[in-house]
Structures are given as structure tokens and as C-alpha cells.
Amino acid sequence: MIKTILISIMKPTILVGGQAVIEGVMMRVPGFYATAVRDPEGKVHVDRHDFKSVTERSSFWKKPIFRGMAGLFEAMKMGMATLQWSADIAIPDEKEKKPSKLMDSLSSLFAIALAVTLFMIAPMWITTKLLDVEREAMAFNMISGIFRITFFVIYLLLISLMKDVGRLFQYHGAEHRVVYNFESGKNVDIPNAQSFPTQHPRCGTSFMFIVLLSAIIVFSLIDAIVMAVTGFISLPIRLLVHLPMIPLVAGVSYEIIKITARNENSLFFRMLRAPGLWLQNITTRIPEDDMVEVAITALKKAFGDQYEFMVGKEYVAEAIG
Fold this sequence. Notes:
This protein is of the alpha+beta class.
């Protein structure tokens, strides 16, 4: 155990992560991120940007919990922008039929409303109607949390049946394998990358599962406080106080992920990480070699001139990727 800790201390740490996009991969490294996408003719296009997180520029947003909130917002903003860019490259015909800003806004609102209905309203409504535990904070949130996790797994299974989503999940696997390859210190190439797992402990899927677990604890505490102050609670009140607390849940989840990464050899934290890794059997698939090639291109372009200096070292990473 002590030997493992000493080895980890000696290894340099770095934040390298990313996400799958349409026919490509976005890679994020310190100070930059780059997206590589293959167009219908087979050409790989790259879009690179400077990036400095607000957590690096503000002492307030660097604090525990708050850094997770800021990180989630930045990841969502970056993810939406890179997905749109990838769609313009991978599906050029759709670019010509690009909807108006109003339609974009309405589509976003519909997606948010659907997510809130499926993962917030529905689990709590079912728990309220089927079971007499509305005034028992922990029991209510434990049961509604189980419904929420069930809906999340079913949702992932259903969308995984779609052909386009299946390819997205292959690129997700490519992103993970290339990150593993880079962190291992081995030469980053297709054969080496393809030898690594598609499941990665710092994946957004694992983060989402931790969010679902954290929500049970945070919402239970909030409900207990509401009942202590008002002596009453109902479904509308729960929705009114739970929805604004979602960033807090994300912040708590971020801290749990970081603790889990630092204690990867602990049995408890391995058990905590296991369900998220299992879910990645749904959200990642074995990538084709040309998909791994795109992910490697994104990584190299993200580092730019620093790539040759950064590659070839064995890293320890603690941030979400």
C-alpha cells in the first residue's frame, strides 16, 4: 500500500479528458481543447481553442463543491459547442438546413423539460402515488432515487439501439482508449490504444451515476430541513427546492469522484466506482481503428507544439475526463 502511494506521488499529474462527438472526438488538455471530426469524404478536420477554466482564474470557484459546479457548466457549454461543430462537418447537408436560433432555443428547452420530467418529476411522482413515505426524507429519496437510476439505465439502453448513437459510443470508447494510452507512458498509436479498456473511471457516465447517488443524500438532507422548518412537505415543494439544488449535487459528486480517484486501491471506493464502470458497457463500444486515429489526432492537436514533450511519461490523473 505504501509502495503504491509513493509510486503515485512520483508520477506527474495531468488533466486529460474529452468526449465523443459526431464522427469524432474532442480532447481537453491543460490550456487547450481540440476536436477532430472525419467528414463523409474521409478527411479529418480539426478545431482547436485556448481554454482556461474559471477555477484557475477565481479563488472562489476553486473551492471544493464550487469547482464542481463550475466544471459541470463549462463541460456542458464546451460539449454543446463541439457537438454542433462536429455535426456541421460530419453532416454537411444538415448545415445548409440549419434551424433558426428560435428553433435551437425551443429544442434545448424541450430537451431540458424532458430530462426534468424523466429524471426528477416522474420518480418523485411515482414514489408519492405508490408508497406512503412522503414525510420520511431518507426513505422517500432512496426509493425515488432507485426509480431515477432505473430510468437512467433504461434510457441508455434504448438510445444505444440507435445506429448513430452506436457510432457515437464507439468514438467514446476510442476517446477512453487513447487517454489510457497517453497516461500509460507508452507510444500513442493505434495498436497500443486498442490494447486498453473502453471503460475509464473518470468518464462522464461514471460521474452521472455518482450524481444520482449523491442526489439521494443531498435531497434527503434538504427534505429533512424543509420539514423541520415548515412541518410539511409535498411533491410541488420538493420540486421547488430540489431543482435549484442540482448544481450543489454536481459539486458534491465532483468531490466524491476526486476522492475515489485518490483512493483507487480502497475496496470501498472500488465498489463505489464499479456501477459507473458497468454502465460504460452501454455507453462505450469497441472502436474501429480509424476512430482511434481520429481520437489520437484530437489529442495531438490539443497539445500542439507541446505534444512531443508531454508524451512518453506515465501520468496520474485525478480530474474528470
